[in-house]
């Protein structure tokens, strides 16, 4: 049993080391076994975290799809993916810290894959929004990207800690507990033709 514990802890460290390199490889190029292992490793810690003028930089995505087809015809046919907060209270869109070794877009896609288990194509950047962390006095500057979902993963790093749910725009307005995220949703619907035409 001791050897198994040692093996698993070293495997996690090894996957955390490989993750920044493997995430840059298109997922279709990876064998299924490696793709599954990479999807089970999540970044942790804040040692690479970006700050700007005292604000912690946060990025994320508003994952969306069309109910009936990939041909959009109205906002009513648009669904967005919300996930449960880590504490289990409320729903939100996937987001997290933007780290020094990645672009803003890469960070948004990584956070979305880690927290919601979806992969897709990002649209134009939305934001910024400024807010104070509920857990500390740290101020955040956040940006969001619309993400047209192309793939839903069966296994992803935070699968055990989060529920994911497809909802309509109106349902998202009701269940999303962060005001700035609701504002991001409204900006996506208002400014991006792929989300409203």
UniProtKB/TrEMBL annotation:
Keyword S-adenosyl-L-methionine recorded: no
Native source species: Salix koriyanagi
Protein keywords: Hydrolase, Magnesium, Manganese, Metal-binding
Any single GO CC term annotated in Swiss-Prot or TrEMBL for this entry: nucleus
GO molecular function: metal ion binding; pyrophosphatase activity
Location of the Nudix hydrolase domain: 54-189
SUPFAM superfamilies hit by this protein: Nudix
InterPro entries documented for this protein: DDP-like_NUDIX (IPR047198), NUDIX_hydrolase-like_dom_sf (IPR015797), NUDIX_hydrolase_CS (IPR020084), NUDIX_hydrolase_dom (IPR000086)
Database matches in Pfam families: NUDIX (PF00293)
Family according to the record: Belongs to the Nudix hydrolase family.
Name of the featured protein: NUDIX HYDROLASE 4-LIKE
Gene3D superfamilies noted in UniProt: Nucleoside Triphosphate Pyrophosphohydrolase
Cofactor: Mg(2+); Mn(2+)
